[in-house]
């Protein structure tokens, strides 16, 4: 008999065997078929009451005690993961930093003292105000960090109220975890068990939970709406981490169908993994370098084990997130050195800071901006704050003594920015040389092409730098003037828009003429649907998340570069992005010749998922 004990009054109960399908966002591919374990993270009712003047000190002490308990709990989870060899334990450092952030701690204490309110209500008001700051951030990755603030606030609140933290120790090995949301601490714990996958009501592709799931190939779906209100512990459920579909109470026929899909998918993925270390060389001898993207230096080893030929994009922003002080030059050096040493002669491309003053370190007081996505961010912020930037450049130059390192500049809009960075780099070299610090004789300097202005003058920029890296996420959004996170215009996010194809072609041709290499490190690079077009363009390198590497390599090996160039020529004359997508979807099966099974890559699924 199905256990409905976790269902609360008011839940929508789905009849068994009905096969109700809900749509979410697939963030980590694969299938999970099993019984639900419902993680109950429903928001608690927060009491509000006034505290007498004689009780204020005791209330402040109670708040401090809850902070200490929360810190001890997170530290214990982190230590357990670290001792077990899990490389994602550092994500919990972000929670420890939030826990001691002045805005959170001092903000709540101020409300307790000045408004004479209880600690629970003061915490709720403070967390809400911090969350609102994150919600105004344009960048999707950093906007998702609001969930980390919620998780920390929930942990403190539960300790204040004497409520137990959601228990995960009783999760059965073959469970599918369902919850409103999962914290990185939850996910880190679950990844040490044998759970089959998870799905949540909220979340996006760039949440910490999604990133962790992808790196360890755990099927996951997020953003499914009110999923946690429709299921109970013990219910049968199916997750499709590729399409984002969640099937509640499937019929026996559906169960058999998806069990077959799961077995076929697992077998095909295992077959791909057998060849993950082989080069990505087309049938007619054109080789693409397949590298990987990382946010944490610990992820370098995961990439290499997945078959990456180096790090194509190390986003250094994580080092600067959720902390009250800037990372020192020495701290940065140790992180960069770790990545460079792990990669050895395979090389690591490290991108300098792509942050704006509104996204970290409030004490910099750079002022609030109406549109930070187009304001003081990335290279603009770095050139505005040369002291901060030079510390990073010196750390990078020092790390270059330990392996092949390339420096990459984000959000370049013109030549003057590149030349200004070169001046700073020369100053840093002189300072390090005067101190007799070792560094490589020369370090390649490249730029991200992610603004239309940079794409249009790519021929000029190519004569000034050593390599290009195309950041398709921003290039598409800025070119088409759309925000992917805005559901009203998401349909306009079209990587194959004729304007984008013309830009990409000009960028690559400009790099070729100048004799420099060009890579792509946006999401487009890790999507097998676009691989043939990217080969046709003549890119030298594709950089992506670890989970995409074996499949992309196999797709490259299954294609003929001359046929890909012909395909690009054919679609270059088309004037409608959906028409181009349909044409490619129809042509790809023939170009692949059955070498890539539809269980792991079905070109037609790309079209179906957009219809």
Short description:
The protein is of the alpha/beta class.
Written overview of the protein:
The chain is of the alpha/beta class and 611 residues long. 45% of the residues lie in helices and 13% in strands. The protein has an eight-stranded mixed sheet with strand order 1-8-7-3-4-5-6-2. Strands 10-11-12-13-14-15-16-17 form an eight-stranded parallel β-barrel, surrounded by four helices. Helix 8 (208-215) links the parallel strand 5 (197-200) and strand 6. The longest helix has 28 residues, at 56-83.
SSE diagram, text form:
Blueprint: E1 20-23, E2 25-28, E3 31-39, H1 56-83, H2 91-99, H3 102-115, H4 119-135, H5 140-143, H6 146-161, E4 175-179, H7 184-190, E5 197-200, H8 208-215, E6 220-222, E7 236-240, E8 245-248, H9 252-274, E9 280-281, E10 287-294, H10 299-305, E11 311-315, H11 329-343, E12 348-351, H12 378-384, H13 386-399, E13 405-409, H14 415-434, E14 445-449, H15 452-456, H16 458-462, E15 467-470, H17 472-480, H18 498-514, E16 517-520, H19 531-537, E17 541-544, H20 549-558, H21 561-571, H22 577-592, H23 603-608
Parallel strand pairs: 3-4, 4-5, 5-6, 10-11, 10-17, 11-12, 12-13, 13-14, 14-15, 15-16, 16-17
Antiparallel strand pairs: 1-8, 2-6, 3-7, 7-8, 9-10
Helix pairs in contact: 1-2, 1-6, 2-6, 3-4, 4-6, 11-13, 13-14, 19-21, 21-22
